[in-house]
Amino acid sequence: MKKAFACLPLLTLLLATPAFATDQTPASKPATAATPAPMEEKVVTHHSVTIDGQTIKYTATAGTLLLRNDKGDPTASVFYVAYTKDGVSDYRHRPVTFLYNGGPGSSSIWLHMGAFGPVRVDTSNAAPTPPPPYDIVPNQYSLLDKSDLVFIDAIGTGFSRPVGKATGKDFWGVDQDVKSFGQFIERYITVNDRWNSPKYLLGESYGTTRSANLVDYLQHQGVAMNGVILQSTVLNYGDTFPGTDLGYITYLPSYAAIAWYHDKLANKPADLPKFLQQVRQFARGEYADALFQGASLPTSEYNDVLTKLHQYTGLSEKYLKQANLRVDPSRFRAQLLRDEDRTMGRYDARFEGINMDDAEEYPDYDPSDTSIAPAFTAAWYWYLRNNLDYKSDMPYKVTNFKIIRSWDWKHPLPGRRSFFTPPLPDVAANLGEAMRENPHLKIFSANGYFDLATPFFKTEFDIDQLNLPPDIYKNISFHYYPAGHMMYLYIPALKQYKQDLAKFYDQTENQ
User: Fold this and answer.
1) Which of 12, 184, 250, 434 lies in the 20 to 30 Å Cα band around 287?
2) Maximum CA pair distance of the chain?
3) What residues contact 211, with CB distance under 8 A and at least 6 apart?
4) Where on the phi/psi map is residue 413: left (φ > 0), alpha (ψ -120 to 50), or beta?
5) What CA–CA distance (Å, rounded) separates 346 from 344?
6) Residue 279: which of 256, 307, 250 has the closest Cα?
7) Domain 2-26+40-239+373-509 belongs to what topology?
8) CB 279 within 8 A of CB 287
9) Residue 452 has what DSSP assignment?
C-alpha cells in the first residue's frame, strides 16, 4: 500500500494520519438503487476522569446523525462520539469543540485515543509498541475540563457512510467535505441546544485544511467560531508544486531539527529553538537566493551555501553536491542514518526503520506509522464495545484509501472571479477571509519539530501569507513541541500541549 502513495508525489503532504488500511476493496460503482437510510441512534454511558486533580463526571454519547439535501432526502449517516460534562446548567459558558483527523480518508481515532479523549492508548515513545494486550489508561491531559468534545468521522470513514441516493463522490472533495461537516455541526448544535455555546474546531493535518475552509463556510451559515486549533498544518498545496524551490526551503529547518535530535551535527547547539531561528534566517535568505540563481550562482557563494547546508542538515557535502543542494524529505529520511542501517519516520522522524538494503534511495515504510497503528486500532475496537457499549455489524474503517484516490482537489479561491480553478487547494485564503470578517477569531497553531509530513516552517510561511493587518494577525499564536506530526505520542509534549490549550481556551472566552 505504501507503493501506491509513492506514485503520488504531488500529494505527499496530504496523508493526515498513519496510513493503516482497513478497507482495500476496489472503488465501488454508484449504486443503481437508493441505500436505505438508517434511523439516527445513540448509546449513552456515564463515566468520570481526573484532570489536573479535578474529578469530572461526564456523559459519553456514541451515535449517528443524518444529513439531508435541500429536498429533505437523507444523504449521509455520520458517526460521532461526544463527551459532555455533567451538571452544567448554563451552556452559554460551556464550550464545545469539534475534532477530526484528516487523510483525507482517516477516521478520528488518533486525536480521540491519542490526545484529547478521556482515555488514551498507551504506546511506546519513538519505538514500536509491543503486541497486545494494549493498555487503555485514563487521560489526565484530556480537554474535557475545558470543553465538551465531539469527535467526528468523515463520511466513508469509521461508521459514517452515504445513504439514500448519495454516493462517495458527493462528499469526497475539498468543498464537498466541508459542506458535509458544516451540515453535521449545524445539526449537532441544533439537536443538543448548543447554538449559543462557545465553539471551536480542532483538526489534524488535512483536518487543518478542512478547518480553514470550514470556519469560513460556517460563518456564512451564521455559525461563528471562537477559536480554531490547527495541528500539523497544511493550507496551500499548490505553492510547493514540483519544479518550484519553496519545498526545499521550507523543509530545511525540519531537517536541522531532526539532525539535532539524532546527534548528527558537529558542535550540537544546546538550545534547539535558538538554533532553528538561525536556520530559518539562512533558509529564507542565502539558501533561497542560491536556489533562485540556479546555474548562475558564483562558485564562492555555492561553496558557502554547501558548507552551511552540511552544518545544518548533518548530510555530507558530497551527497549535497550530488543532490544539487536540493534534498526532498524521502531522500533525507533514507540518507541521514544510512551509516547506521536505519531510516526515519515521515510523520515523526524520531522513529527509526530498517530498509531491505542500505542502497535504497527511499525508505521502504514509515516506522512512525507501523509502530503505532495496530495499537490504536485494537484499543479503539475494545474501547468502543467495552466502554462505550456501542455495537455494530459494520466494520469500522480506520482509514479508507478509496477516498484519497477519488478526492476532488479543486477549490475556487474565495472572493476572486476567475475562469480558472487551481488544481490543488489554497484554503489559507479562506482562513484569512474568516479572520477579517470575524476579527475576534483566535487561531492556535501546534507544530512538531520532527514532522516531515507538514513542516513547521511551511506552516509559518502559509499563515504569514494571509494578508492580515497587525491587529488581527496578533490573534494567531504559534506553539512548538519536541515530537512529530502526532506530537501527543510523546507524553511530555502532550502535557505541554494541553497546558497551552488550556490558556488558549481561557483567553478566547475572556476576550
Assistant:
1) 12
2) 71
3) 201, 202, 203, 228, 229, 230
4) beta
5) 7
6) 256
7) Rossmann fold (3.40.50)
8) no
9) S
In this predicted model, what pLDDT tens digit does every residue of 410-443 receive, in sequence order? Answer: 998 887 656 678 888 999 999 999 999 999 999 9
d(CA 373, CA 229): 24
The whole-number average pLDDT for the span 232-256 is: 92
One-letter amino acid at 57 equals K
User: Under the phi-then-psi rule, with left for phi > 0, alpha for psi from -120 to 50, and beta for the rest, what region is 51?
Assistant: beta
- The structure's pTM equals 0.92
The C-alpha cell of 321 is what?
553536491
Amino acid letter, residue 150: V
Secondary structure of 48-78 as H, E, C letters: EEEECCEEEEEEEEEEEEEEECCCCCEEEEE
Q: Are 490 and 125 in contact (CB under 8 A)?
A: yes
In the chain, what are the domain boundaries? 2-26+40-239+373-509, 243-368
Give the list of residues 6+ apart from residue 483 with CB closer than 8 angstroms, or none: 348, 350, 448, 449, 450, 489, 490, 493
Strands 199-205 and 227-233: parallel
CA torsion sign for 462, 465, 467, 468 is positive
CA 483 to each of CA 258, 448, 487, 496: distance values in angstroms, whole numbers, following the listed order: 10, 5, 5, 11
Q: Does pLDDT of 24 surpass 50?
A: no
> Which cell numbers in the block locate residue 488?
501527543
Q: What is the pLDDT of residue 241?
A: 75
The predicted-structure confidence for 144-163, as pLDDT tens digits, reads as follows 999 999 999 999 999 999 99
Which amino acid, residue 319? Y
